[in-house]
Design a protein that fits this description.
This protein has 238 residues and is an alpha+beta fold. It is built from 5 helices and 8 strands.
């Protein structure tokens, strides 16, 4: 009986010792699993942060290089502009590359949509691409802040129907162009006193009667139309 009792006690001790040795290993395994779970949870967030990039904006430093590359493979050269008075189409000159690329780029970005012909000078020009709506300022901010160098020595004149780019009004002794705006000459046969100072970069090839309708609208102080004239859509066409 004593031997059997001793034997039973010995067996219980062995089981207890084995259980004690196994517990740390089990805890370690559980800890490792917990750490792996933490890693697996953190990993997607870290990947998302790495993949997230700053939105691209144009600046004075990158604009020339960007439009030089953008224009290399650019085949588009026509833009149709639609208003409540109808549509007209402009064709852009290939050898005025920065202004052409800029106009196509802004059109494809949807910038001109819902901007206005905010300046109408009788028998002279209509000027578009701006508005006092906050949405226009927001779009400009998202695209970037930059100016374009003048390119007025390609031999183009400001004939009637010419689309040209106004110079910026702020700190601009070199007549750098304001990239978000444009004007179209309505004078017959043209407004040649503008030659050499502004950059003609295309011409109206269809719908000049719509341009004339816009120019005929009643305006107030600062040549701003009494009734807003929105560009409802600007789109690249073949």
């Amino acid at each position: 009986m004593v031997f059997k009792r001793f034997y039973s006690i010995t067996i219980l001790l062995l089981i207890f010792l084995v259980a004690c040795k196994e517990n740390p290993k089990a805890s370690a395994t559980k800890k490792e699993t917990t750490e792996e779970q933490k890693d697996s949870i953190a990993a997607p967030s870290e990947v998302a942060q790495k993949e997230e990039e700053e939105p691209f904006v144009l600046t004075e430093d990158n604009v020339i290089d960007f439009f030089f590359k953008y224009n290399k493979d650019l085949k588009d050269d026509k833009v149709r502009i639609t208003t409540k008075f109808g549509s007209f189409t402009v064709q852009l000159y290939d050898n005025v590359p920065y202004h052409k690329a800029n106009f196509i780029y802004l059109t494809k970005k949807g910038y001109f949509d819902n901007t206005q012909f905010h300046r109408v000078v009788k028998n002279f020009i209509i000027q578009g691409g701006n508005s006092d709506d906050q949405a226009t300022a927001d779009k400009r901010r998202a695209i970037g802040r930059y100016l374009l160098p003048p390119d007025a020595k390609k031999g183009y004149k400001h004939h009637r129907g010419t689309i040209s780019m106004p110079s910026s009004e702020v700190n601009n002794p070199h007549m750098l162009a304001s990239p978000f705006e444009f004007f179209i000459v309505v004078t017959k046969p043209g407004s040649y006193h503008l030659d050499g100072e502004y950059t003609p970069f295309g011409k109206v090839i269809d719908g000049m009667d719509v341009v004339d309708k816009i120019n005929a609208q009643r305006v107030g102080k600062g040549d701003w139309p009494f009734k807003n004239i929105y560009i409802t859509k600007a789109e690249v066409v073949e």
